Amino acid sequence: QVQLVESGGGLVQAGGSLRLSCAASGRTFSSYCMGWFRQAPGKEREFVGGINWTGDGTVYADSVKGRFTISRDNAKNTVYLQMNSLKPEDTATYYCVASRLYYGSDVRSYGYWGQGTQVTVSS
């Protein structure tokens, strides 16, 4: 079992940067793959990116590739989402997710979700 708490959201101008953090409870963080999803009002939940257990494997949605970077620090039980060159269309609630075996884009494969943190990008 793992509990996830996101932080770092806020209001930023287009072109700016934010770093989201997701702190996980428990002593088995390194046995989970992690990921980030986002959901804008009136839209479906969208995969942002995922990272494997050790951090040497990542995957990103095309919409964020080259702008967003996922990393993790297993000693701190934390996963990060560095967001650069933000656009108004990145405005959404961002969710941290965890899975024992998977870090791809299938929302159904993640059994653990955080409560979300709001990111708003103004034009």
What features would you describe in this structure?
The protein has 123 residues and is mostly beta strands. It is 0% helix and 48% strand. The protein contains no helices and eleven strands.
Give me some keywords for this one:
single chain, 123 residues, mainly beta, 7-stranded mixed beta sheet, 4-stranded antiparallel beta sheet, 11 strands, globular
List the helices and strands and how they pair.
Blueprint: E1 4-7, E2 10-13, E3 18-24, E4 33-39, E5 46-51, E6 58-60, E7 68-73, E8 78-83, E9 92-99, E10 112-113, E11 117-122
Parallel strand pairs: 2-11
Antiparallel strand pairs: 1-3, 3-8, 4-5, 4-9, 5-6, 7-8, 9-10, 9-11
Which ranges are low-confidence, i.e. pLDDT below 50, for 5 or more consecutive residues? none
Q: SS-based structural class?
A: mainly beta
- Average pLDDT metric: 97
How can the largest sheet be summarized?
Answer: 7 strands, mixed
Q: How many strands in all?
A: 11
Give the topology string: H per helix, E per strand: EEEEEEEEEEE
Beta-strand residue percentage: over 45%
Distance between the termini: 40 Å
User: What percent of residues adopt helix (DSSP H or I)?
Assistant: under 10%
Number of helices: 0
**What would you call the shape?**
globular
Query: What is Rg?
Result: 13 Å
Short description:
This protein is mostly beta strands. 0% of the residues lie in helices and 48% in strands.
